[in-house]
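Record filed below.
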Amino acid sequence: MASIIEKVGLPYVLKNKCDYMERGKLGRDGHIELIPKRSYGEGTALLKPVSKSLMVSVSDLTYRQPIEHISRDLPEYFHINLCRGTIQGIGGARVSNVHSRYTPAGFSHRSVGVSFLPEFFDSFFGLRHGISPDALTEALNALGRFPLIPEAAVILKQIGGASFTGDIGNAWIEAKTLELIAIVLDWHRHLNATTQPGLRENDRTGIVAAMRYAAEHCSEPITLALLAKQAAMSISKFTAAFKTHTGVSTASYIRRLRMDKAIDLLKNTSAPLGDIAGMVGYKHHARFSTLFREQFGVTPGSFRKKD
């Protein structure tokens, strides 16, 4: 039985429109490393097989030219990823047959994702718990409206930075992927339970615009009035509609965005803590430290030392 790396990874690299990449390097352990041609960009992308039906992708790429990604005649599979850079947030899709997306010039991102065949989902959620893959498809389609699910982002970051290797490492990634799927399904179920049918589509569109604005400007002062303006609503209407649409308050949502960015900066930069506080929208280091400790149970300094 062919694995997902053979069904999806290799065909995408070798058979489909991937002219912007150098030919993929296949390692002894089954990893595929992709490097863009110099004229197109720089960085690397890695496909890591975990099991017959699960693989992990990790990329750090910057494109100098616009790119069209096209995959044809691939088997149906699921993909969930966390992207940071030009575009930030959790994304997901149920992919089959012809799949195409366009990447503009100047696009820069780091991402980690999991891809899995339907049998990976069925083996746990379907056979054991009677949950249909259609439930996951519906949840993944809804992800496009939300730039962040904090719990899911944490798991994907853990997968991307995993130090485990061999059979034990693969078992750990499988467990984390099941946890990730469960979080996405639970998030969508909660969303359906808290979203009132009376919320009009243009109001939902306005809320999404405000959420994206908050994600892109979380290092700046963000007021309710500013977000309400992005949504084209009064402050009172926006406050109620935001809670209805997301299940959390605007203050909680913005704090999650800022804390997630702080984690990234603490792990991947050597910037002083005071500078990081400013980078995530807090003028006073003490306030930032207090909120960080409330969120994660440790101070920013302690977190950096442990990491």
